[in-house]
Design brief:
- The chain contains 13 helices and no strands.
- The protein is an all-alpha fold and 230 residues long.
- Helix 1 runs antiparallel to helix 3, helix 6 packs parallel to helix 8 and helix 7 runs antiparallel to helix 8.
Length: 230
């Protein structure tokens, strides 16, 4: 891979641009880098190709001039084949650059190497739990909901939600999303957590709202939530 490859990637992005996708992206993202307007399936395909070619070179040389370039890098880390410590080091370099929820969530949801290295990735995530930064803590929340809602980790995941206390919108929404998803998969554990937790009132009520509005829950589980008010 050479810098010419990076230039070709940018040309390809511009070629895939559509006016409709530009409008859609601007509609769902209020804060992002400039938008080219490329659909996510196209970006996934391009990221897989970059990961096969030389993901290290790509991560080190692809600019972040556009939202789509940021998403490409977010996906490429997830598709990379390498030892876990090297991939985590690239993730550490990438995470501080995240400044919108879409890049954050593309990165977390595509980080499937976590499923084969849960103990190490869980340990690694704890430093982002401790950081008092909006997207550092959202990374922790979305990574946990995406890859750690398992029999082994459910109680630990819910305990971590108590620690994500940074008072910023996307942190709180990430926590609410994680708690609501946990309730869908582990209703008894999550209900017990809802009875005794350290969530802010806003995050607590947002979690309840997400659960009650979801089609994933039987009505009897929704009815159990009615009494949970502060």
């Amino acid at each position: 891979m050479t810098k010419g490859y990076i230039e070709e990637v940018t040309k390809s992005l511009l070629a895939y641009s559509t006016e409709g996708q530009v409008k859609y992206t601007h509609h769902v993202l209020t804060e992002s880098a400039p938008v080219i307007g490329v659909r996510l399936p196209v970006l996934r395909k391009m990221a897989k190709a970059a990961a096969r070619e030389d993901y290290r070179f790509f991560m080190e040389n692809c600019p972040s001039d556009y939202f789509e370039q940021e998403v490409l890098k977010a996906y490429t880390i997830g598709y990379a084949k390498d030892d876990i410590e090297t991939i985590l080091s690239y993730a550490d370099e990438f995470i501080p650059s995240i400044h919108d929820w879409a890049v954050n969530d593309c990165f977390c949801q595509n980080f499937t190497i976590a499923k084969k290295n849960r103990a190490r990735v869980f340990e690694w995530l704890m430093k982002y739990v401790a950081e008092q930064k909006e997207f550092s803590q959202r990374v922790a929340a979305v990574m946990l909901l995406s890859h750690f809602l398992t029999d082994e980790y459910i109680k630990r995941v819910l305990s971590v939600m108590n620690e994500l206390q940074f008072d910023a919108y996307y942190t709180k929404m990430g926590v609410a999303w994680c708690v609501a998803t946990a309730y869908a998969k582990y209703p008894e554990d999550t209900y017990a957590f809802l009875l005794d937790n350290k969530l802010s009132d806003w995050t607590f009520h947002k979690s309840i709202t997400k659960m009650r509005e979801s089609f994933r829950f039987p009505e009897r589980y929704k009815e159990m939530l009615i009494q949970l008010k502060r």
